Amino acid sequence: MPLRHTIRVLLNDRAVTLPAAGATDMLLDHLRLDQRLRGTKEGCAEGDCGACTVLVGRIGAQGLVYEPVNACIRPLVSCDGCHVVTIEHLRGTDGGLHPVQRAMVEHHGSQCGFCTPGIVMALYALWMEQPHPS
Fold first, then answer.
1. Which of 117, 132, 95 has its CA nearest to residue 40?
2. Would you call 40 helix, strand, or coil by DSSP?
3. Cα 105 to Cα 103: distance, rounded to the nearest angstrom
4. Which residue, 44, 57, 71, 109, could crosslink 83 as a Cys pair with Cβ 3.0–4.6 Å?
């Protein structure tokens, strides 16, 4: 198999081909600096706080399987062939707020707002597993 010099990612709703990244190039830096998607925040840069949470989808036996990941410690190269979903992509079927976002607003679930995108993405991952909770 020939060595590839690119990384292919489905970033939100568009296919992106990137030059091969180094082992220390993190997903968060790429999202914020290269793609200008600044909704994902860097809080601790250690994977502890969750402010940088995004979803990464991989093909599994049941189709795409998504997991919340800390983008600040996720190597960009590990996302090759994946679907990366950021807070910018989240919206309802009507184009407005997604039900998770609406619940955060209606129940005053935000404080200063810095880590809210990460919280919303973690809740969205849960919602994807059970979209109609009781």
1. 117
2. coil
3. 5
4. 57
